[in-house]
Design a protein that fits this description.
- This protein starts with a helix and ends in a 5-residue tail after the last strand.
- By secondary structure, it is an alpha+beta fold.
- The strands form 4 sheets. Strands 5, 6, 11, 12, 13, 14, 18, 19 and 20 form a 9-stranded antiparallel beta sheet that branches. A 5-stranded antiparallel beta sheet has the order 7-10-15-16-17, covered by helices on one side. A 4-stranded parallel beta sheet has the order 2-1-3-4, with helices on both faces.
- It is built from 12 helices and 20 strands.
- Helix 4 packs parallel to helix 5, helix 5 packs across helix 9 and helix 6 packs across helix 7.
- Strand 13 and strand 14 form a beta hairpin.
Length: 400
């Protein structure tokens, strides 16, 4: 699935994998299948979450603005050649629980600054890249705390395989059909060219303006190297870029947000003229504030995504504490950077031109869920007509 669906790896390409030490069994399997697919070289950038925890426990408190760039250089070597990148998720959601929020914020910003040259290749789909997940012991313990360690890991693998359509009679065909449905829905919404979306639900009454010539994306993507791929496995969303100056109202998160090894819970944001001007949180408020203050664009929206409440992740009726999974359980928005591909011609614009067109520039990009079984979404046309898109969390027009 990772090689044939996520990456659609082509003969002659090289592959760079970013993964933690715990995921080594999957890395080895991916490497074997990559070589069978004609890959010329597979290399891995390993990380160890325990080393990161040791840094937060013992490193000088004024050192968190330091971040190495050698791993970015390695990624650029692959990106500039049109090779492939794979990330394997599965981090411990509680790894940095209880650590200094300011140190976390400084570390996150330093990492984002260091990664920016490589991020530009990824957010513009210049190459085929993908993210898949691995059932690590720490992640499984968080999702299934009442089971034995072996049962936890097996149960989470069951979820991953179900959600990722691995157990279908023909998983590749199932993904082709699913991606096609998402792509049709995105094409339908792009054609409508709504001026804004109006989202209502428990604690939410939000109007999200959309830029002229905005583009909806979903399912697969075509890389700048000419290869079609699926960036996120799983994926259930169609998404676009909000107009960074035209978001108004209040939105309430429908699920807790696992951010930097800590939880932000029961939170809401109020927007005016595109910026978050107020917030509240029952837990993790200081961390939420650090996110909003990361840079000029982190208090504005960079993504508006629609996901049906009946998605396979939602049907599991549990929080996965992992954005790759939780964002595909519900409609969501993201604070921070917008994808240049979500504005027609955005890839060829300078940052100044992209912002003038309505796009948002930021080091951050953090998704949080806002959709529920009671969520309604209307598309607003240029003449002010409201057309229903979702009712009770489900699409009512366009490809279903």
């Amino acid at each position: 699935m990772a090689v044939k669906v996520g990456l659609n790896l082509r003969p002659g390409q090289r592959l760079l994998i970013r993964a933690s030490l715990e995921t080594a069994p999957l890395v080895r399997l991916v490497a074997a299948h990559a070589y069978r697919a004609g890959c010329r070289l597979v290399e891995t950038l390993w990380n160890d979450p325990e080393l990161l925890l040791a840094r937060f426990n013992y490193a000088p408190k004024d050192s968190f603005d330091e971040h190495a760039t050698w791993w970015v250089t390695a990624g650029l070597e692959y990106a500039e050649r049109g090779d492939a990148l794979l990330s394997i998720a599965g981090a411990d959601p509680d790894l940095l629980n209880g650590q200094d929020p300011q140190a976390i914020a400084t570390w996150r910003k330093a990492e984002a600054v260091a990664a920016r040259p490589l991020s530009k290749y990824i957010v513009s789909d210049s190459l085929n890249w993908s993210i898949v997940a691995y059932s690590t012991a720490a992640w499984a313990d968080k999702v299934y705390p009442g089971l034995s360690p072996d049962e936890q890991v097996d149960r989470l693998w069951d979820d991953i395989f179900d959600i990722c359509r691995v157990r279908r009679p023909d998983p590749i065909a199932a993904w082709t059909d699913h991606a096609g449905t998402l792509e049709d829905r995105a094409e339908f919404l792009t054609g409508k060219q709504y001026t804004a979306l109006h989202i209502t639900g428990p604690g939410t009454d939000l109007t999200v303006g959309l830029p002229d010539n905005h583009v909806w994306l979903g399912g697969g993507a075509e890389g700048g190297n000419g290869i079609n791929f699926v960036p996120n496995v799983p994926t259930e969303e169609v998404f676009t870029a909000p107009n960074r100056t035209k978001v108004d109202g209040t939105v309430r998160a429908s699920m807790p947000l696992s951010y930097s090894g800590n939880m932000i819970e029961d939170f809401s944001l109020t927007f005016k003229d595109g910026r978050a001007v107020d917030y509240s949180a029952a837990k993790g408020g200081e961390l939420l504030k650090s996110l909003l203050d990361m840079d000029e664009g982190s208090a504005c929206l960079g993504e508006m995504a629609l996901v049906p409440h009946s998605s396979p992740i939602s049907l599991k009726e549990r929080l996965f504490y992992n954005t790759l999974y939780d964002e595909n359980a519900a409609s969501h928005i993201a604070l921070g950077r917008a994808y240049t591909l979500c504005i027609d011609g955005g890839d060829d614009m300078s940052e100044e031109q992209f912002m003038k067109a309505g796009g948002n520039i930021s080091l951050a990009h953090v998704d949080f869920m806002i959709g529920t079984a009671e969520t309604s979404v209307d598309g607003l046309t240029a003449d002010g007509t409201a057309e229903p898109l979702m009712r009770n969390g489900e699409f009512v027009i366009g490809p279903r």
